[in-house]
Amino acid sequence: MPDLLESADPGRRSSTLASSVVNGPLSVKEEVSTDGGQATTDEAVLYFENVSKWYGPVIGVNQVTLELRPGITGLVGANGAGKSTLLRLAAGQLRPDLGSVQVCGREAASAAAKHRLGYCPELDIFYEEMSGRRFVETMARLQGFSASAARCRTEQTLELVGMADRANRRIAGYSKGMRQRIKLAQALIHDPPLLILDEPLSGIDPIGRRESIELFLKLAEAGKCLLVSSHELEELEKLTDHVAIMAYGRIAAVGPLVRIRDLLDNHPLSILVASDQNRKLAMALLDLEEVVGVEIEGDDRLKVLARQPRRFFQKLADLVLEEHVELRHLETLDDSTHAILGYLLGAGK
Amino acid sequence: MTPTTSLKREPAAQAAPSAFRAWVYLIRLSIQRQARAHMMIWIALGLLAFTLFIVALNTQAGRWSMSYWRYPRRVGPTFEQHMLVLENAAALPWSPGGGEVYAAITASFRSYLEHASGFFVFSTWIVFGLFTTFLMPLWSLSFATEALGREREARNLLWVLTRPLSRPAIYLAKYLSILPWCLLLNVGGFALLCLAGGTPGRRAFVVYWPAILWGTLAFCALFHLMSAVLRRPAMVALLYSFFLETIMGNLPGYSKRLSISFYTRCLMFDRAHDFGMRPERPWIYLPVSGPTAYLYLAGFTAACLLVGIIVFSRREYLESAVA
Prior knowledge:
heterodimer; A: elongated; B: disordered N terminus
């Protein structure tokens, strides 16, 4: 079993993401390396194959095909989109009505798969009478470790999540943030290659969030696959740019945010531009085929609506040089997860 | 949190996990968690204390005897009064040898009344009337519905379900974890009642404890199954105990054969056959033989466990997942 935060082999240091989706409004098939390296793992860590799940007459997850490899994937979507169902299917807590969910090639509900996944549920319930240390050690014992190994792992994991000095208190008296850390510790206790984290940043103070994000990034660097669901989209953006967007039980899009944004042809990117010659720049911009429109924003700014953002930015750079315009401000307004989610879901979030 | 800390596992921590070790630990953990007192157990202990008090009072008053029974029932003189009449009759002018025979017969009646009838009375009132039909199901359910039921209610069953243990192994571990407590309460509680019952009580314990043991295993398997199937198992188990075991278990005809306590009592009758114990009206009670009762209780326990394993393996415990 590889050590936490230490790559088992140098090749795994190149944290890679690969995913495919065959349904939803966007169809993306890609293999992207976060640091330019090549994907080194042939076997998907987590694989959903045409998975559907019903709750009586209501469909929770609808024909989802998703493949995750080492790295961090953010799972976003509106309430009721099916995020938690997807995570519970991945954790083996629910069984698909159609299709299959596999963790490292094993059926997710099997005991073999549970050796390979750590699940940090949103549910905020523990064995409340226990101390944090006892709880994590209990989870290690239930994982099958001997008493001495469980103690050893407990201490190391508590140290890792920053709870070593506070773990002797009863869980019932913990703050939300401390409970989140204990939940994370129990998921990490057996060094699983797959971590399923349901709202792991919820309730944690800003410093704790930063530390958690750093920890997640290091775990990903160490070759682990993290599937993180969060409503804290800004925090999620700090964690990863690779997201799976869920809507109405389906994966609406999956991949790097930039790529997803590029494919949203119906929603031109809004860019705020300020220069020393706004009028001249506006006229030149309107000649570009990628530009849908230009609006005057206040006295000294232009709001440009452009399709195919990559080509637009290349042409903008050329145009600025040719026309000798001095750019003073350049800001994309709606390429955030929030905005993309809003476009994909049609309204609101 | 210190994310810069590199977690290098020490050799002790790198020992391979074992599924069997995890399973044994789950049994141990579940036994420990069962020890936490909750309402049903306090009720069970309260009932034990109350019953002990009543039994001790009766023992103190020497009520474990047929001397106080009346014949004809309710209106006639007591057996003690009948005995006095018989003993006084010994003074009558009997034929040679007849007086000795008569004296021997009355002495044997006296001996049964004073020494052996206590076992019959204690068995009828305490063992059959109270323990097997009421206390044993109630005490069994107070622990047996809790192993899974309480975790489902508290929604922390999730923590066991996320570990690499198969569902059948979890179900069996939970069953095994309730047995020490149920046996302690049923067999231990029965032993206390018998001790408080004096000589007839002590004899009753020696004769009946195997039947109590088998009955407990069957009740635990049934209530454990209920806790895997139902969201509020204690309530259903209570209703079952009162209506099916207490009422239907005492109805004439074959319907009582649906109750566990019927087979437990048949086993008791079989064990106490040498002491003259038998159903009051066998043609109405329709008892089964001892071996049949053993087979039924063992088969019922195994069937409940098998069905429970299947149900628990297939079921999705959504309450453990919903935040």
